[in-house]
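Minutes, project huddle
Topic: does the predicted pose make sense with iron/sulfur cluster bound?
PN asked that the exact inputs be recorded in the minutes so nobody has to dig through chat later. Recorded below.
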Amino acid sequence: MNPKLCTETYNHSHPASIETYLSLGGYDAWKNILQNKMPRSKIIEKIKDSGLRGKGGAGFLTGLKWSFIPLIEGQKYLVCNSDESEPGTCKDRDILRYNPHSIIEGMLIACYAIGASVGYNYLRGEFMDQQWKVFNEALKEAYKFKLIGNNIISSNINIDIYALIGAGAYIVGEETAMLESIEGKRGMPRIKPPFPAIKGLYGKPTIINNTETLASIPKIMLNEDGWYKNLGLNKSEGMKIFCMSGHINKPGNFEIPLGTPFADLLKSAGGISNNRKIKAVIPGGSSVPVVKGEDMMRINMDYESIASAGSMLGSGGVIVMDDSTCMVSVLHRISRFYYAESCGQCTPCREGTGWLYKILSNILSGKASLNDLEQLNRIAFQIEGHCICALGDAAAMPVRSFLKNFWSEFEYYVDKKESMVS
Ligand SMILES: Cc1cc2nc3c(=O)[nH]c(=O)nc-3n(C[C@H](O)[C@H](O)[C@H](O)COP(=O)(O)O)c2cc1C
Ligand code: SF4
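Predicted holo structure (tokens), as shared on screen:
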């Protein structure tokens, strides 16, 4: 049985309560840091050495990111990114719902390590009914137990954490758009550099980390050096939650060692439903390139292995499609999402996403020609790498990979004006 970092409370009768969390060694890492006055640099080194990579999509090394914060005194901020809006991704909502104290403890440790006295957790608007309430209740408990606030455990350390809620825009998950939104402005990405670690929230040094990243911190700090790193398989380091959805028997979140063969993960998720064949997999949320099913069955769930299959691990949202799937319809649906969610700030993304969606709509309504398929590729190529933020790439990469892997299906649709898949 592998240790669970973020999902260990799930089987308890009151998973989100502070009593459950404390009974599992919760807040021990935080108390240990305060009681031993652990130097900030030691924490950053430990997180760096653990090999922990950001779980929000880009997979950037967490300790390295923290080390970019200037050492000078002054106001700094931590922001936890709980916006989770990438289609196919549903892990952060469960951590918020079932293990909110792991996020709070991770945020406290991160605040301490970077020298921030204030942390914000920004939740997506749709979490208002459930996760928002559970997280705020957990915050109240942590204050009641004096694990947060002023002079925590007589350490002279003051840290406050606030929860904020968005208004339903995918783009606010992009870290600088999130900062704009927290400042009360329209959530639109900033041009980088400067990066947030130098000039972030209200112009002050700021670290933004994903919910799963921060929830992984307490266990890493509690265990001996090398523990987290060695949880990975086949030369990979650490763990990851994969959100399994699509044509499978047991959809859900699976926290497993990085490097686990995809075939084993699929088996844990009950295999393909209705005894059909696997056709394609989007391994890291809707914005990453699609991979053919047979190629996926040969690789492991880690950054390098998925990259070797031409895709990305992204946020860990694994969308499995069986042989009844019409790839033209899937791409049409994905393109509509990015068109709707573009903030409109840069021309290639604003105009290009609409153009892609229009051509795909024309294919579905039998009004497209073969030239339009080349045009799709050309537009995607012009968007990729030419925008302020990665939403442009997120719109372009699926288009290019769907065409590359399933060209004949697109050709058939244009020619016969109907799907190849009945
Ligand atoms: C369009 C767009 C949407 C994003 N949405 C999210 C999101 O919902 N949650 C998240 O953690 N990161 C999201 N990201 C990535 C963040 O910008 C940022 O890299 C991440 O929160 C950093 O945390 P990490 O280093 O722990 O992964 C998004 C990026 C882009 C370009
Ligand atoms: S790439 Fe798209 S979403 Fe990102 S800033 Fe430009 S227009 Fe906005």
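Observations noted during the meeting:
- The first strand starts at residue 77 and ends at 82.
- The CA atoms of residues 275 and 403 lie 27 Å apart.
No decisions taken; revisit at the next huddle.
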